[in-house]
């Protein structure tokens, strides 16, 4: 770790106000954050009635997703969004090191709540193109080692590239990866360290032992079944914590902090596919005694400060979640006091720092400079040309060539692989979700990054067999994405998309809306948003005739969806006829490399394959 002192840019009141995230009160238990640190946050610890009060500072990040620098590899430009956010470990590091300088490194712990090695071309390159299993260094390891983390929990995306890659990453870190509920398939013993105890030695006081427990959402069992089936099981977060927290306390921990890669709202995206809760952090705080604070991850939202009362002890547990990609850094302040000979947390509070006014830490940016340059050369290499420009901006609510292209490549890949099999004569359909509104293929030269932008996740391609009726059932659930509207508009996209449903009480995310297409433009359908959920798919046809509900179709689908992500009907039990574990993004890149020319007329047409209607009449949507 660099020993250079980072300038204390937090020192000025103006900068402090800029750094603090302004968060409105958002429901029961969520505290508002002031424009600057509270008096309690800045006051020096002092004596209490039962002895000295000592302040411990815990700094946290989560869902970094391969972002080290403030750079958008898909746009080949500095990262920018409508809220003026900045991203990356390098900026978060400047905040972390400045707080350490302010309060004392000996009083500070730094942790992460998971999802570090997937999400950008930088991360993908060192998993697949120049893999760390072959000896290269993962840039996230180089960056996080420079920050000086004390521990990090595993996230579900840590498992995307398999256990060999994850173990290689683990070996490159100067701090432990924690996961108490990633357990051996047969023995039930943790396959990673469940916790670590850090001894905080402060002047004029006895050492304080701080236990850090790592937990991951059990959804790994669904989303990465191909990588973990038969190897690693994932007990529920609450269930495993009830076992592990007492053990951690028995091992001597005075304070227990959980790095929990699981949101706080108690919801799950997989329906009843697992007996556990996906987003269980608040339930964890409520039901498991002995926890003092939880760094929340996975949900990609920000929680400046929330208190949940434990039903067993009556004590308040502090929760905080910083925004993803390094946009925010959590600062938790825990005041400890000796009570009847035992250290106890007598007060806790938290706030978020905004990374957008922090400079990049040169120690971190320097550690990844060579890797960054190598990946820039890779993603900006020209691999083909396109006769037309194709944008995915409107793909959520109208048929676009961009989505047709994804479905086409998926379909032709599966079709070719079926040659010589019993399914070779079956018609092939394909599904894809419009999860990147910024994706665009330009007319003219096409680079790796432009193609990769069409498919920003590391999902692999699978082929399954469904009947015509099952295809219709699938589309019906996909159509839940749309809000019910009885008129034809005009509407804004926000007025018709992201509907609140029993499966998505916070609104259906774009990645849980699937568009289906057939090779040779053979599948057509309408989505009637005036109708109730379950009866919206009308005019479903294949090859110009109403679809045969008893006929069989091979459907190209991604591994996330096939394994239960989104809890779509029929897919988990459907026969699998293709599964070569190849990333869809790479398949698209390979197709362009091999074919050289993208011509939308080969996979898209002027007549939409699908459209939104209301009571049978076309709906108008204006962005």
Care to describe what's here?
This protein has 623 residues and is α/β, with parallel strands linked by helices. The protein has 2 domains: 47-375, Purple Acid Phosphatase, chain A, domain 2 (4-Layer Sandwich), CATH 3.60.21.10; 382-618, 5'-Nucleotidase, C-terminal domain (5'-nucleotidase,  domain 2), CATH 3.90.780. It is built from 18 helices and 32 strands. The strands form 8 sheets. Strands 1, 2, 5, 6, 7, 16 and 17 form a 7-stranded mixed beta sheet that branches. Strand 6, helix 6 and strand 7 form a beta-alpha-beta unit. Helix 13 (401-417) crosses helix 18. The longest helix has 17 residues, at 401-417. The model is unreliable at 1-7 and 20-49 (pLDDT under 50).
CATH class annotation of the largest domain: Alpha Beta
- CATH topology (level 3) name of the largest domain: Purple Acid Phosphatase, chain A, domain 2
CATH architecture of the largest domain: 4-Layer Sandwich
| Individual helix count | 18
Mean pLDDT rating? 90
Radius of gyration: 25 Å
**How many structural domains in the coordinates?**
2
Global structural class: alpha/beta
Biggest sheet descriptor = 7 strands, mixed
Overall morphology: globular
Number of strands: 32
Outline the low-pLDDT stretches: 1-7, 20-49
Estimated helix fraction: 10-25%
Instruction: Give me the CATH superfamily of the largest domain.
Output: Metallo-dependent phosphatases
């Amino acid at each position: 770790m660099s020993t250079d002192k980072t300038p204390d840019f937090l020192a000025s009141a103006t900068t402090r106000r800029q750094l603090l995230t302004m968060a409105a009160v958002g429901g029961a238990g969520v505290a508002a954050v002031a424009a600057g640190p509270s008096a309690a946050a800045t006051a020096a610890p002092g004596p209490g009635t039962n002895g000295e009060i000592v302040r411990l500072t815990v700094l946290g990040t989560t869902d970094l997703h391969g972002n080290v620098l403030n750079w958008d590899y898909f746009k080949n430009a500095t990262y920018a969004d409508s809220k003026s956010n900045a991203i990356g470990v390098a900026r978060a590091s400047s905040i972390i090191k400045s707080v350490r300088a302010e309060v004392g490194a000996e009083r500070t712990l730094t942790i992460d709540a998971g999802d570090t090695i997937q999400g950008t071309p930088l991360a993908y390159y060192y998993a697949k193109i120049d893999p760390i299993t072959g000896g290269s260094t993962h840039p996230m390891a180089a960056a996080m080692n420079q920050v000086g983390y004390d521990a990090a929990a595993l996230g579900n995306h840590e498992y995307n590239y398999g256990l060999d890659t994850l173990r290689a990453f683990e070996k490159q870190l100067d701090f432990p990866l924690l996961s108490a509920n990633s357990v051996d398939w047969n023995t039930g013993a943790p396959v990673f360290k469940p916790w670590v105890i850090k001894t905080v030695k402060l002047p004029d006081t006895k050492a304080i032992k701080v236990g850090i427990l790592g937990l991951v959402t059990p959804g790994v069992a669904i989303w990465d079944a191909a990588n973990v089936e038969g190897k690693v099981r994932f007990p529920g977060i609450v269930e495993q914590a009830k076992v592990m927290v007492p053990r951690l306390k028995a091992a001597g921990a005075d304070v227990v902090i959980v790095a929990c890669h699981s949101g706080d709202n108690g919801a799950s995206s997989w329906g009843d596919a697992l007996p556990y809760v996906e987003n269980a952090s608040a339930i964890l705080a409520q039901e498991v005694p002995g926890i003092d604070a939880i760094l929340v991850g996975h949900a990609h939202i920000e929680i400046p400060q929330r208190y949940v009362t434990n039903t067993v002890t009556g004590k308040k547990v502090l929760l905080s979640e910083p925004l993803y990609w390094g946009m925010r850094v959590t600062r938790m302040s825990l005041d400890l006091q000796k009570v009847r000979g035992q250290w106890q947390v007598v007060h806790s509070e938290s706030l978020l720092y905004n990374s957008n006014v922090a400079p990049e830490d040169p120690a971190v940016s320097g550690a990844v400079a060579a890797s960054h340059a190598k990946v820039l050369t890779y993603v900006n290499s020209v691999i083909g040309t396109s006769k037309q420009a194709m944008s995915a901006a409107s793909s959520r609510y109208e048929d676009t060539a961009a989505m047709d292209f994804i479905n086409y490549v998926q379909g032709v890949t599966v079709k070719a692989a079926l040659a010589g099999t019993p399914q070779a004569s079956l018609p092939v359909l394909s599904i894809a979700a419009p999860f990147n509104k910024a994706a665009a293929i330009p007319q003219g030269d096409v680079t790796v990054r432009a193609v990769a932008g069409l498919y920003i996740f590391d999902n692999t391609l699978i082929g399954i067999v469904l009947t015509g009726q099952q295809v219709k059932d699938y589309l019906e659930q996909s159509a839940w994405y749309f809000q019910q509207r009885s008129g034809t508009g005009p509407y804004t996209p926000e007025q018709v998309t992201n509907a609140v449903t029993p499966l998505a009480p916070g609104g259906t995310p774009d990645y849980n809306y699937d568009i289906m297409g057939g090779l040779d433009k053979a599948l057509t359908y309408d989505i009637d948003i005036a109708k109730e959920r379950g009866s919206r798919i009308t005019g479903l046809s294949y090859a110009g005739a109403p679809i045969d509900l008893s006929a069989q179709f091979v459907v190209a689908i991604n591994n996330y969806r096939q394994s239960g992500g989104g809890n779509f009907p029929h897919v988990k039990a459907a026969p699998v006829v293709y599964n070569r574990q190849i990333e869809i993004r790479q398949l698209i890149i390979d197709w362009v490399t091999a074919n050289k020319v993208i011509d939308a007329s080969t996979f898209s047409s002027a007549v939409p394959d699908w459209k939104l209607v209301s009571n049978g009449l076309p709906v108008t949507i204006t962005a």
